[in-house]
Design brief:
The protein has helices spanning about 15-35, 40-60. The protein has about 70 residues and is an all-alpha fold.
C-alpha cells in the first residue's frame, strides 16, 4: 500500500526513437511557451531525460563494446 503522505507521481515510458524526438520537440515548445509555469521543472526534467535517452540511442557509447 502506498504511503498516504507521498503525492509524487512517477512515469516511465518507452517509445521508438522517432517518437522520443517528437515528444522532445513538444516538451520544448510547451516549456518555451511559458503557458504552464507550474510545470516548468517537470518540462526541464523531461527535456533532460529525453535528450539523454535520444542521444544514447543515436550515438551509443563505445566503451565496453570492443573485444580484446
Amino acid at each position: 500500500m502506498a504511503d498516504d503522505d507521498d503525492d509524487t507521481v512517477y512515469c516511465d515510458i518507452q517509445m521508438p526513437l522517432a517518437q522520443g524526438r517528437e515528444l522532445l520537440e513538444l516538451v520544448n515548445a510547451l516549456r518555451e511557451s511559458k503557458a504552464h509555469p507550474r510545470l516548468d521543472k517537470v518540462f526541464e526534467h523531461m527535456q533532460y531525460e529525453l535528450s539523454n535517452s535520444n542521444d544514447n540511442n543515436e550515438n551509443p557509447p563505445t566503451w565496453g563494446t570492443s573485444c580484446q
